[in-house]
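Before surveying the methods themselves, we first show a specimen of the format, giving the amino acid sequence and backbone structure tokens:

:::
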Amino acid sequence: MNDPKKIVIIAGEASGDLHGSCLLRELKKINPNLDIFGIGGDKMKKEGVELIFHIDRLSIMGFWEVLKNLSYIKKVMKTLVSAVETKKPHLAILIDYPGFNLRFAQKVKDLGIPVLYYISPQVWAWGGNRVKKMQGLIDRMVVVFPFEKPIYDKFDIKCEFVGHPLLEAARPVLSPEDFRRKFDLRKNEVVLGLLPGSRWQEVEQILPIMLESVHLLNARIKNLKLLLGLAPTIKKEKIENLLAPFNTPVTIVENLTYDVMKHSDLLLITSGSATLECAILGTPFLVLYKTSFWTYLVAKSLINIPHIALANVVAGKKIVPEFIQKKAIPQKIADEMYDILNDQARYKTIQIELEKVKAKLGEEGASRKAAQIIDRMMSNVE
């Protein structure tokens, strides 16, 4: 057998771990003789990645938070570059996580290693100057939103649109009947799903706002059942400690997040890839986001789009409500939830708009198509 092709792969958070694992599963079907190392989570490890670092220490968001962890991030970068110099991989695959990955791209390009970027940085939110900096760094960009390709084409960066991998990943396990049976849901109960995020610093800021909002809603809707979808990166005990001061019964759901998304009547979610997952599954939702004041201030100065929820970005208009930073007021959130649940026409309109968002994401098979692109690149590398 020939020597294995070597790949360094970097995914710095839970969504990247999911997309990376699906990609590698498809890649190994084409070429099982691979030696893969880098950064990822449990899903990528299961697909055979030798983890130099695990995402549980790297899922850091916010400028102030990054500064506080700068020495650790520098250590990670130095260790990875050293591993690349030793192992001499044939290709670097970078998944989202632009703050780290664009710096890493420069390091590996200096070592003569081709770079493929899968799940583009959010260039549509940044403006053109930052895309220009990617010229010469990225050999191939593989994008998951149709509106991203023209941006890269404009800057002569080779780019292919493959559709969104969440179309194949966002699938519930249980039928509606089994779901209701499993969580002992009565016929007249209104099921509200809470998805507070996959980063602890998000959860501890946003979950209390969710709980206060739900408490206010509970005063108006007596038959409310609360289910909290637990991200694999968050420990259940930490959530239980956060729930303790609130006199609101909440069922914590592990390993069935897509079922919570699909089978709830309404969802309250933290902004991120979850807004796209919920759009694909078709359940109406509201989006919350709150971070430190300084992080928000810096982010606001860099982002040039009117909405932050990916479902709204893809739609090109606001189809689901957003409660961001100082607008994340529990009373207003509770009022909006009540209105959506009690206005059947509005509820149906949101469902129809979410179907349109799903249609814009292309066809299933993104991971397979991206794997084929990688295989073609690898076949041209000595």
About this structure: The longest strand covers residues 5-11. The chain has 19 helices and 13 strands. The chain has two domains: 5-165+365-379, 176-360. The longest helix spans residues 200-218.
